[in-house]
Hints:
The protein is α/β, with parallel strands linked by helices and 567 residues long. It is built from 19 helices and twelve strands. Strand 4 and strand 5 (394-395) form a beta hairpin.
Amino acid sequence: MSVAADYRRALAGHWRGWTVLLACSALEALPALLSGTFVRNAVDDGFAAGRLDVGAAWLLTFAAAAVLGAAGVRFVWRRIGVIVEPLRDSLVRRVVRDVLHETAPPRGGPDAAGVARITQHVEIVRDATAGLLVQARGLLVTVAAALAGVAALDPLLLWPVAPPVLLAVVLFCGLLPALARSQRALALADERTAAEAGAVLTGLRDVVACGAQDVATSTVRAAIDEQARATIRMSTATALRTLIIGGGGLLPVVLVLAITPAAVADGRLTAGTVLGALVYVTATLQPALHGLAATTGSVLLRLMVALNRLGEISPGTEPDRPRGAPRGEDVDARGLTHRWGDHAEPVLRGLDLGLRPGDHLAVVGPSGIGKSTLAGLLTGTSAPTGGEVRVGGVPVAELDPARRHRLIAFTPQETYLFAGTVRENLALLGPAATDDHLLAAATAVGAGDLVRELGGLDGPIRHGGEGLSAGGRQLLALARVHASEARIVVLDEAAAHLDGPSEARAERAFAARGGVLVVIAHRLASARRANRVLLLDGDGARLGTHADLLADSTSYAELMLAWDGES
């Protein structure tokens, strides 16, 4: 289903809210419909006739209608959240799903463009929808009520009032395509700036290490310059829109005043009727036109562009895949190949790998050789460009999602902890786990003392684990995975911030759990503890025991020699 269809369905699902908004709109339009008529009556039947009490009574009635209209506006605001917030939640779920199913996600950091979709495009849709519900809806009702009021005063007054208003609307509609193009260009420029700046800031250490500061600066500056040019083009189109609407609101006043002397002199119009018409134009139509133009030219355009952009970068409805049930815990990779980009060299090429329950595999090799890529492919968080991974005889992409989440657990070096209690963080992957089970898991990986220092399972954890050391955060993440029921565990340098003995204790705890354990090694000591070792060195892949690779692989022997020398 397209993003636009999701949007329409989310809005249509709140018919009760729409019914309330319709009733509130009728109440809100009451002052616009009656204002000119009440002013005419106050002048002609009251003040001009020397009856001050009658004139005052009509003005008080007008004030009462204004109070009722204000109550209608208040009721509108109270109903907006009922419609808009579920819409926003629906779009956020859509964007997050699309990011998670991205076939070529960014490497080495967060998806800045994906974040921009939520923080910019989705928020634009949310705010624009709320603006349309509050402003455009009310303004359209107000304009219709004001024109009806002018016609009720005297049909003669429609001729100087209606044509300028309609002409302004026609010219404004003709300007909308240019406004839409300018707004879309600005949205794309905003997204590119977010992506370029996010990439540079995330890889700032690598930029400095490579001496690429000038290149990074020029790249970000170019994106910012394009964003500035797009903003200027949008401002120019907005100024033209303001000129058209301003003329459409001012010309009716000039025309009404131009016909007034002759029409009043021959008795076709009264002073109260003319004043009532000017009230409709100046107090209702002019503000309504300006507000409608601002809402349509800004809010509506931003809404259309944001929805179109979300539709362009969304792959649409996730294709239906057969959902298979795994038969066992075996992991088999056949012909596994992956490259980051159509023209990039593969980081993995034709890899065959079979893992059985009880296997403890250490994956070693230089940085950037494809170890983390392999972790993503084995867990199904990334899709290979060639070959496949099967779990229990079923392609990992075709596993029932709920079953896959219970069967496979993965934790990277970049640990994430959320604001909540220790219990809530440890039970994230095993919500049914008992307190005793959570404490046993923490003790097994070496996080028992840390849990006690935090105040036990009820102890608080701040967002991102603020206040904890990097090693402390990793210990809690390891305990979280250990407490899950997953039988296939992949640790991607998940103990990189721990000392050697702590890392060894955690790995032994996972090996003792049974099932399949894959460790992307931060220290080569992990290879000595594993019963199988996979070496990735750029020339292919070699699989064997630690002793076998020492004897048969020069690359592995050199890596171990260098590691022993450093340690």
